[in-house]
Amino acid sequence: MDESAAIDLPSFDDLVAAHGRLQERVRRTPVMTSRDFDARVDRQVFFKCENLQKVGAFKFRGAMNALLLLEQQARQRSAGGETLARVVATHSSGNHGAALARSASDLGWRCVVVVPHDASAVKLAAIEAAGAELVRCEPGLAAREAALAGVIGRTGAAVVHPFDDARVIAGQGTATLELLAEQPALDVLTTPVGGGGLLSGTAIAAKRMAPHCKVVGAEPAMADDAARSFHGGTRVGMQGSPATIADGLRGSIGVRPYALFRQWVDDVVTVSEASIVNAMRVALEDLKILIEPSSAVPLAALIEGRIGKPGDRVGVIVSGGNVDLSVCPFLAGKTG
Question: Is 56 or 120 the better-scoring residue by pLDDT?
Fold first, then answer.
């Protein structure tokens, strides 16, 4: 049975509506270039710096879009005489939880976030700082979903899934709308891929605005379920919590993102852990920005010549900048 047969998938019109909805809520992040990086990879690269987005990650776009739609529904129901709790919940390894917590705080909602024990301390601190309640669980998608079900039963919260949600995917795609408005003649667009919300939203935008542009996902070899799903033709999940430094990419590919991959994504490539660490160092040296390991994955693929060809104009969504300095190898004084 086709998993995508009965699910809601966002359209390009949904991305455009999300962009309008988010105009006064998100930062229009800058697009950076680096001659040094271009020379290093023999491509002209344009970095959409979502590491400078609110909460330090692109995730704020999707979370806020979903919550604005929930707020609209809540107001309509309140006008009809219903009393609503305005509680929202999710599970997250960090950035989505912080994004939803910040969005909830901005709109006056209560937020509960289920987090695995192995989540980044920096990201957990950001979730708590935004006022959300943390519920800890064991690592792995099954444990996260079970804990979230318990939260829903206790609070009646509305759920905003970190990536398998049409509202979230539409919000994430707005970063690419902005990038292509500034740089319409790209040959390739690339993003990291974990659950797939960013890559699928990017693909929807790219294939409408720049049909010739190839869309390529980049993933850690230690957490390669999206690559295996893409190349194998069947969605496969990730067992447990992969031991990759790219903590934001440990989730399994979602049903909706995978359905969109099948339509619009051209390739998914993988890189090693050493390459990810090296790419973080290169970003600091060439672009003068510190990016989190998940953001470094597409850069690693570019450095290895895995994305595009010499001379191509390449767009990169730099997904986040929330780095746990205590485990960043080269900042901690380690060499590998």
Answer: 56
Residue 265 lies in a domain: yes
Tell me the whole-structure pTM to 2 decimals: 0.93
Number of alpha carbons in the 13 Å side-chain half-sphere of residue 134: 20
The chain-wide mean pLDDT, for the chain, equals 92
How does strand 44-49 pair with strand 31-32? Answer: antiparallel
Q: What is the pLDDT of residues 221-247, one digit of tens each?
A: 999 999 999 999 999 987 767 789 998
Provide the domain limits for residue 83. 60-159
253 shares a domain with 129 = no
**Other beta carbons less than 10 A from residue 50's beta carbon:** 30
Q: How many angstroms separate the CA atoms of 219 and 242, rounded? A: 12
The whole-angstrom separation of Cα 292 and Cα 206 is 24
* Number of domains comprising the chain: 2
User: Is the distance from CB of 67 to CB of 108 less than 8 angstroms?
Assistant: no
Would you name the residues annotated as active-site residues? Answer: 59, 93
